Amino acid sequence: MGIIEKNNIREMQLSNLIVNPTRSQTTKHKQIIHQVYSQKELKFIVTELATDETVPHWFYNFVVIMANTGLRDQEMAALDINNSVNLKEQYLQIDKAITGVKGQRKRLGPTKNGVHRRVYFNNIVKETIIDQIKVIKRLMAKHADYGWQETPNSEKLYFLFAHGNGLPFAVPYLGRRWTTAIADHPDIPKYSLYSLRHTYATLMYKKTQDAPTVAKSLGHTVATFLRYYVDALDEDQKQLSNIDLIILDDD
C-alpha cells in the first residue's frame, strides 16, 4: 500500500499514456467508403425523378448534369451561364466553387484541390443546360435585379442553378434537396448527393479503362482517383464466379 500511495503513475491520465496519431497516419488508416450506383440504378433514379411532381424541374436538371459530368456539388453551385458554359465546344470551365461557413455569407472560392479544368459533356447534358438556361433567362426577364455580386464592384453572375432572385445555392441545401427527392422512393439506395460523383468515376472507368483521362476530368491524379473514386460494383464481382482458374479433370 505504501508503494501505491507514493506511485506517481496512478495520478496520470489515460490520455497521457496514448500517443495520438499524426494527421497523415489518420488519413492512411481512414476507412474509405464508396457509395456508387450501378448504371441500372442511375437510369432508374433519373426516370423516377423525372416523373415525380414533388421534384422541381431545376433539381432534376441538376442531377442529370452532375451524374453525367462528375462535378462536385460546390462546383455545380458555382456554374454561371456566361463564364462556365461553352455550348459550342461542349465543355464546362471549372475554376471556382461556392464556399461558405455556417452563419457567414456565401462566396466564390477555388475548387477543392485548386485544379482548373475543362469537363466535356455529351448531348444529353447540352440539352439539359440549354433547358436550364431558358429557366434562368425567364427569371432574369421577370426580375430587373436578378443575379449575384460577391462584392459591390465585382462582376454580376448568373448561375445555372440559383434561388429565384439569383443568389447561389449553399451546398448543404442541395444535399437536403437530394435527400428529400429520393426519400419517397424505396428502391433507390439512400446514398448522398456526392455519390453521383463517385458513380460517374466508377462507371466511366468501367467503360473506358482510361484512368488518366477520367482522373483529369475529375481534377485528380491517377493515384487519388483509383484510391477514392473507383469501386467494384456487386454485378462485376459476381462475374468473378464465372471464371475458372483451375480446370479439374472430369474423373
UniProtKB/TrEMBL annotation:
UniProt cross-references to PROSITE patterns, sorted A to Z: TYR_RECOMBINASE
Residues of the Tyr recombinase domain: 32-242
Coiled coil regions in record: none
Alphabetized UniProt keyword annotations: DNA recombination
InterPro entries associated with the record: DNA_brk_join_enz, Integrase-like_cat_sf, Integrase_catalytic
Entry protein name: Tyrosine-type recombinase/integrase
